[in-house]
Amino acid sequence: MRRTKECVAMLLAGGEGRRLDALTERLAKPAVHFGGKYRMIDFALSNCANSQIDTVGVLTQYQPLALSSHIGSGAPWELDRRDGGITMLPPFAGRDGLCWYKGTASAVYENFAYLEQYAPKYVLILSADHIYQMDYRPLLDFHKESGADLTISSIRVGREEASRFGIMSVAEDGRVTEFAEKPAKPASDIASMGIYVFTWDKLRDALEEDAQLLSSSNDFGKDVIPLMIAGRKRVYAYRFSGYWKDVGTIDSLWEAHMDLISANSPLRLGRRDWPIRTPLPSLPPHYIGDSGATRQSLIGEGCIVEGTVDRSVVSYDVEIKPGSLVVDSVVMPGAVIGRNATLYKTIVGEGAIVADGAVIGDSTCGTVTVIGHHEHTPRKPELRPVAIASAPQTGAGARLSRIG
Predict the structure, then answer these.
(1) Which residues fall within 8 angstroms of residue 275, CB to CB, at 6 or more apart?
(2) How far is CA 230 from CA 178, 233, 234, in A?
(3) What are the b/e assignments for 244-273, b being 16+ CB within 10 Å?
(4) What is the per-residue pLDDT for 380?
(5) Of 129, 23, 21, whose CA–CA distance to 400 is shortest?
(6) Could you tell me which of 130, 62, 5, 26 has the C-alpha nearest to residue 349?
(7) What pLDDT digit, counting tens, does each position of 142-200 carry?
């Protein structure tokens, strides 16, 4: 018989990530590579491990294969255990025949049996596609001390990007008085981080009530949280002051990588007290050839660099051939950059091949260029804009281009 757990984490990892364009055509958003050696989901899993939360349910849906293979038994995060540990929770056919989670709230609702076996006092709901380092224990302590039914971890964002998030109005005592998911006219700059602590019996009641509403989209931000506020439940905001990035767009993904290599990076992957863990193939050290040069960059294991890399993040097992120039770019695992090729502000997908002599990107404007996973560029590629209505702009005239 399993022993009870004070807190169980439910990690929402089924995101389709359409705004990441070619990078998520065949890959769940949380499985997208980040930071030279990680995938996005590694941050939430590492935060759980470092916060001593040892029971995690991972809710998958869209393109789960790569994600499931990456997580495996959970050993890198010390979650390979019989008592708790990590459990993959894909959609399944119930009595009504449905086998697809309708929303974030329904994903948890459909897995009540998983939660009930641990009889938790608290349930921590997390998103698997955010980049941050956070100790969840102070959040849980705040929830207990305030007597909250629900605590929402929050962070201040710029007014120009507030419409991308769930936005809260918060009273002086920390109580949330209003919540709107991605409002056209944000009432404040206090944004939800998509991190929630629920008292278990209050979560169960709220999700059962939401499931009975035919008009509900069964989403935490759109439905459950406003429902709890309207029902005068005790909903509080917890202020987080560290680095946090929602990398839901091409621009934000590129910006988060540039944050990593900035002179005073707010995100320190080398923290010995808060390591970000990941499974990684056994590869030799990277090699910088006699014609190779790097500056202010991260270079992964197994790379062969015979060109110039400047202010870029290069993942493991990448080859950059002589005469090539990679500037302000992100290169994902297994990619090959051909001879005398030039890349400016480009995200190169896993296993992509950039042809000899190709010139990708533009050093004079705010364009982010994307080369999809396993794509091959022509020698003189033509770029076409990709329309993503919700993608934020970076600088004047910023746009998104894609190869092919």
Answers:
(1) 46, 50
(2) 9, 8, 10
(3) bbbbbbbbbbbebbbbbbeeeeebebeeee
(4) 57
(5) 21
(6) 26
(7) 999 999 999 999 999 988 889 989 999 999 999 999 999 999 999 999 999 999 999 99
